[in-house]
Amino acid sequence: MLACTLSIPGVTSAADLSVGGQIRPGGACDITLGNGGVADFGNLSRKDLYGADHMRDVSLTINCQRRTRVGVDLIDNRKGTASEDHPWNFGLGNRAIGYYRIVNFGPSMVDGAASVSIWRWKGETTWREKGRTYSWGSNKTISWDVSGPQSEPVAFKTLTDTLTIELITKQDTAFTDELAFDGSATLELVYL
Predict the structure, then answer these.
(1) Strand ranges for the chain from DSSP E
(2) pLDDT digits (tens, 9 = 90+) for 163-189
(3) What architecture (CATH level 2) is domain 29-171+182-191?
(4) C-alpha atoms less than 13 angstroms from C-alpha of 32 in its C-beta half-sphere
(5) pLDDT tens digit string along 10-21?
């Protein structure tokens, strides 16, 4: 009996394969706010605080690679600093000043057609308030619909809308020094 082993240098019996990439939900959408997401109210004097409307508009754009149903959730980054605790009141960093609201008066457009915003309570499936003006809240998911009897999110590639930021100051704020406010919220896309 004769045994022999043959070996060829550089030849292996196994090879490694790597598989990578990213799977994105829906149509991989991006959200942007006009003016860098800043609603600047500038310098206000004490007399400016009371009885005047303090509103600034910020444009909202959502672009998707393909038609996708999305919504927006709001996160108050200054939670606990609004002078009145409600899910639609967002903090300014100092309870003594007041709060701000985010209101949608429209008009909004999806893929060049008129649309309306709708909302649902977080964790629920029923969409509400088609065609009405309302305050956005940290307890709501916002989306958009077009005309028709039902209220349900429509798939789109491009959405444009206008958010109105309303500053509401406390009437009884007593101060002698300058008061700075710095509200902050995150708008987070939700794939539906």
Answers:
(1) 29-33, 54-68, 70-76, 98-104, 108-110, 113-121, 134-135, 140-145, 156-169, 185-191
(2) 999 988 877 666 667 777 888 999 999
(3) Sandwich (2.60)
(4) 9
(5) 555 666 664 655
